[in-house]
Amino acid sequence: MTEKSKVIEGRTGPWEIVLGLEVHAQVASNAKLFSGAAVGFGAGPNEQVSLVDAAMPGMLPVINGHCVEQAVKTGLGLKAQINLKSHFDRKNYFYPDLPQGYQISQYKHPIVGEGEVIVEHDDGSTFMVRIERLHLEQDAGKSLHDQDPGATYIDLNRAGTALMEIVSMPDMRSAEEAAAYVKKLRTILVYLGTSDGDMEKGNLRADVNVSVCRPGAYEKYRETGSFSHLGTRCEIKNVNSYRYIQQAIEYEARRQIEILEEGGSISQETRLFDPTKGETRSMRSKEEAHDYRYFPDPDLLPLDLDPAWVKAIEATLPELPDAKKARLQAQYGLTAYDAQVLITEQARADFYEEAAKGRDAKLTANWVTNDLAARLTAGGFAIEDSPIKPAGIAELVQLIEEGVISSKIAKDVFERMWAGEGAAGAIVEKQGLRQVSDTGELEAIIDKLIADNPGQAAQVKEKPQAIGWFVGQVMKATGGKANPGVINGMLRAKLGG
Amino acid sequence: MAIDAATVRKVARLARLAQPEETLEKLAGELNGIMNWIEQLNEVDTDGVEPMTSVVQVPTPMRADVVTEGGDPEVVLSNAPRRAGNFFVVPKVVE
After folding, report:
1. A346, A393, A407, B51: which one has the fewest Cβ atoms less than 10 Å from its Cβ?
2. Going by CATH, does the domain composed of A439-495 fall within 1.10.10?
3. A305 interface with B at CB cutoff 8 Å
C-alpha cells in the first residue's frame, strides 16, 4: 500500500520513517459537548463558560446530541465502523486549564472504530491510511504564559468544546505523506460539515508519532501486525500547520537516527515542536502525568445509538471528495489532476460544474483551475465570493469555442472581466477584440508581408516551420485579433509551406 | 492487590496530595484493608456478565445544540482567588 517509502541514508546504512497521527478536529457545533455554553472564536476571556465548564461542585454534564451526530457522520465519511454502544471515561491529570482535574474522553469504547482514508501524493498516485478509531472528548481551556512573569492567565472559553480525536495507524512513511493525509482528512471533514478544519484558529491540530526503522522492518510489521518490528516512537504534541508537521517530522527522524547510530536507544516520550528553532524538545512535565487512571465517568450514561438514527445520518452524507473526483473524471472526461484540483474545495467543484454546463469541459476546467484560481488566491477571495460568476466563465469559454476570440485575447478579456468591465461578450464588442477571420482584410496584410520579405517567403519552401514568422507578423499587424487557424491556411496556400 | 508505601507515594503525588513520608506505611495498611474488603466482590462469579458502568437503565438524555449558558464571566470568576480582568490567574506553569 505504501510503496512510496522514503529512505534516509545514515552513517550506518539506510533508515525509514514510520508515522502515525492523532488529529484533533473541533466539532462544528453551536454549544459545547456537555454544556450549553457557546463555542466560538474571538469572545472576551471567560465569556463562553458555563458552571459545568468551570467544574463547579455539583454540576453535571449532559451530552450535546448534535456533537454525537457529527462524530457518527465523520465516522461514516471515513468508511468506519460505527459503534452503537460506547461510553465516556475520565482521563485524570492536573493542569490549570482543566478545571475538572480530568478530561471526559472515550478510552475503551470509542464511538467510531476502524476506517480508512485514501490519500493523494503530489504526483497523483494514492496510498491508504487506516483509521484505528475516532472518539469524542472535551477540549481544555487556554493558558497564557506571557501576560505576567510570575503567573499564568487562564481563559476557559475553549474548555469543554467538543473535539473528535481521529487516530490513524502508522501508515505514513514520509513528512509529505503525513501532510497529505492531514490535508485529505481536513477536506473530508469540511465536505461533511463536521469541522471547519481551520488550522489557524487551532480547530485542527495533530499529534505526530514518529519512529524510525531499517528497511524491511515496516513490511514485517504489516505482515504480522506486531509493533515489535517497529522502532520506539516519540509523540510530538500539537503541531498545527502542514509546514510545521513536515519540519517536526524531519527534525525528529534525524534526531532519532543520530541517537541510534551512536549506539543509544530511544525513550518513548512526549515532545514539543518549537517552530522558531525548528526542533523538538522533551516535555518533561508531562512524563510523570502519563498515568491517567482512566475509569468510566459515573456522571454519564453509556451512549446507546439507534441503528435507524445512524441510517438516517448516512442518508444525509454529501458526495465525498473521492466519489466527486471519480464522477468529474467520468462525466466530464477530466484528467485525474484537473479533477483533484477541482475537488479540493466543494465550492470550487460546484462552481466548475455550473460553468461547464454545455461548454467544453477541459477548457472550462483550465479557466477555473488556472486563471481564476490564481486571481482568487492573489486577491484573497473564496471562490464563493468570486467577482466572476460561473456564467461569466461559461460565456468566455463559449466565445473561445465559437472562434470569436483567440485564447490569447481571452486572457485580456478575462482581466477586464475581473476588473469589473462587464460580461465577456460586451467587452469583446466594446473593445473590438473580435477575431479577424475576414480573409479579404487578412489577404491584404499577408500579400504586403510577402512582397516586403521575399527572402523569408522563399525560405518557407525549404523550411515549412519558417511559416511561424509570418503568422507572428500577421498577429502583430492585427493586434493579436487574427484567427491563427485562418492565417495558417492562407499562408500555406500562398507560400506552399 | 497489595499496596506498599511506594504505591501510596505515587498515588498521592498523582492526586497532588502532600503526604508526609512517615504516614505512608500507616496509609498503606489502611488502604490494603479497604482493598481487601472490596475484593470480596471477586467471590461472585461474573463470567459472561457485561460490566455495568451505571445503575440507571434509561437512554442517555441528550441536549439540543443550543446556547443556553455562559456570557457571564462575573459568575464564573466569583470564586477565583486571583483574577486579572476576566482571566483567572494561577501560579506560573511552564511547559
Report:
1. B51
2. yes
3. no
